[in-house]
Design brief:
- The model has no long low-confidence stretch (mean pLDDT about 60).
- By secondary structure, the protein is an all-alpha fold.
- It has 2 helices and no strands.
- The chain is elongated, with a radius of gyration of 11 Å.
- The chain has one domain.
Length: about 50
């Protein structure tokens, strides 16, 4: 499904950012998002909040 591939692309991009940036605050915020994402699997609730 196209939604899943979009989500996968976002997920991979942000995992890469965590490895590259290694800023505790950024990493902490991102880890909470990734955990939230994993909890709900591929449902639309995974769409990232870009605020």
């Amino acid at each position: 499904m196209s939604f899943q591939s979009v989500h996968q692309k976002w997920f991979n991009m942000h995992l890469k950012n965590v490895k590259e940036k290694k800023k505790d605050l950024f990493k902490g915020m991102l880890m909470r998002r990734l955990c939230f994402c994993q909890m709900y699997g591929t449902q639309s609730i995974c769409i990232p909040n870009m605020r």
